[in-house]
Amino acid sequence: MAIDAANTTTASQRRTGYRFNLTGWISLIVILAWALIAILAPYVTPHGISDIVDTDYFGPMSLQFPLGTDYLGRDMLSRILFGARYTVGISLAATLIACSIGVTLGMAAAVTGGWFDTALSRFIDALSSIPSKLFALVAVAGVGSSIPVLMLILGIIYTPGSYRFARALAVNVNTADFVTVARLRGEKLSYLIRAEILPNIIGPVLADVGLRFVFIVLLLSGLSFLGLGVQPPEADWGSLVRENIGGLPFGSPAVMAPSFAIASLTIAVNMLIDNLPQKIRDRSA
User: Fold this and answer.
1) How far is CA 148 from CA 8, 97, 230, in A?
2) Among candidates 143, 156, 279, 144, which has minimal Cα distance to 216?
3) Which residues contact 49 (CB under 8 A, 6 or more apart)?
4) What is the per-residue DSSP string for 6-54?
5) What residues pair up with 281 in beta bridges, in sequence order?
6) Distance (Å, whole) CA 223 – CA 113
7) Which residues contact 117 (CB under 8 A, 6 or more apart)?
8) Dihedral sign, CA of 9, 14, 16, 19?
9) What is the pLDDT of residue 87?
10) Transmembrane segments in this chain: where (predicted)?
């Protein structure tokens, strides 16, 4: 019976091409839960995010306020649920900007080669030589801290890393025989990128997208903690830590809860990425 169960599991894995262990499933559930909360935040918050619902600031956890209250007596559960909308939304948008631009340019440079590859790579190297936090601080201080600006700045900061990663993968695929045959057939650059290069690097690229997302979440939270991220009356998780830092000596959940929210999301994404290489090996086999 044990042998039959093992054979059934193996057959299922061969059919799907994916192998999730318990850690992978838990991580996926956490990520999907935060994504769902970010979408449905206005409908699931028990109180208004700006409503003062308690006369006691830095109130303790209770049945009425499961995560306590903040420095003004506002419900922390409501503010964290709504803060997910900004943390997840801005980070996801910036990740898509960085990875779509970086991966596209990386594949184009690898396939085209020559002066285009050299010039673009040197420009990317110059851009990546600027420390990310310094670039973000200067750009936000100079341009402003609106949500579209944050998305664009964070996307620009992590485009070079995505470019270098995609180019390194595409250079190897570009030397394959099937790419040479497609080039001899007279296929255009767009076809080579879309049909020949991208399908063969999509697994590692998806893993890199997850890493970029984690980096952007942490950088966004750091900017908000310094007061240069999401501005009041909106608040992301980094802003919630900053505005409630005065409750740290009291062990207030108002400062610990958003920190745990950041940790839960980033750790879940990292642990899910750790499961991706096994999935890729199974699929390629």
Assistant:
1) 49, 12, 11
2) 156
3) 74, 78, 79, 82, 233, 235
4) HHHHHHHHHHH-----HHHHHHHHHHHHHHHHHHHHHHH-SS-TT-B--
5) none
6) 37
7) 109, 110, 167
8) positive
9) 95
10) 22-44, 86-113, 134-159, 205-230, 250-273
State phi, psi for 89 to the nearest 5 degrees. Answer: -65, -50
Tell me how far apart the alpha carbons of residues 277 and 197 are, in angstroms, rounded to a whole number: 19
Check the CA dihedral 34-18-283-266 and report its sign.
positive
Contacts within 8 Å (CB) and 24+ apart, 70-75: 70/240, 70/243, 70/244, 70/247, 70/254, 71/243, 71/244, 71/246, 71/247, 71/254, 74/47, 74/49, 74/50, 75/45, 75/46, 75/47, 75/51
C-beta neighbour count of 92 within 10 angstroms:
17
> Two tokens at 189?
């650059």
Please answer whether residues 41 and 275 qualify as being in contact, where contact means their C-beta atoms are separated by less than 8 angstroms.
no
| pTM score | 0.86
The average confidence (pLDDT) of the chain is 86
The per-residue pLDDT for range 70-97, each reduced to its tens digit, is 988 899 999 999 999 999 999 999 999 9
Q: Measured on CA atoms in the order 137, 139, 143, 147, is the torsion positive or negative?
A: negative
Instruction: Report whether CATH 3.30.420.10 matches the domain 23-284.
Output: no
**Of 33 and 195, the one with more pLDDT:** 33
* Dist CA 212 CA 108 (whole Å): 21
- Strand, helix or coil for residue 58: coil
39-68 exposure pattern, b = at least 16 Cβ within 10 A, e = fewer: eebeeebebebeeebbeebbbebeeebebb
The residues near 266 (Cβ < 8 Å, ≥ 6 apart) are: 214, 217, 218
